[in-house]
Design goal:
This protein has one domain. The longest helix is centred in the middle third of the chain and has 17 residues. The radius of gyration is 14 Å and the shape is globular. By secondary structure, the chain is mainly alpha-helical. It is about 65% helix and about 0% strand.
């Protein structure tokens, strides 16, 4: 599984897309239609990884952006709750949360870190609960 996860980091095209979006965010340019297009391209690249968490995260992210014209999910807590019985505490932002979106993108650049994949799962739960 590690070699599969490693491929996204090695895929220059994927990293270039992530970097492009992050550069635009840094310049305070949050153009939803452009971001959605780039996330869709990124998702196509990651489909061959056979990593459902990443594929789902990208789809849910661009759907969230399309439907809400912004990113209204907060950064997940440092320690995600593993218990299935625990109540899901979704972090919702009142305004476009560029910092959280940038963090979401950064998770995709290093999928070897278990915590990054766990945080992507938390984002997925939050997207679904939003």
């Amino acid at each position: 599984m590690h070699s599969i996860l490693l491929r996204i980091m090695e895929n220059r095209q994927a990293l270039k897309l992530i970097e492009k979006i992050q550069k635009e965010l840094f310049k305070d340019n949050f153009e939803v239609s452009e971001i959605v297009t780039d996330l869709k391209k990124l998702r196509e690249i990651t489909l061959e990884l056979n990593n459902p968490v990443v594929t789902k995260a990208l789809r849910l992210a661009y759907e969230h952006l399309e439907n809400n014209n912004g990113f209204f999910i907060g950064i997940p807590d440092d320690e995600p709750i593993d218990s299935k019985d625990a109540e899901l505490e979704v972090k919702i932002s009142d305004e476009n949360n560029v910092e959280s979106f940038n963090y979401f993108l950064s998770l995709l650049t290093d999928l070897e870190k278990k915590n990054n994949v766990l945080d992507l799962k938390e984002y997925n739960k939050a997207f679904l609960a939003y």
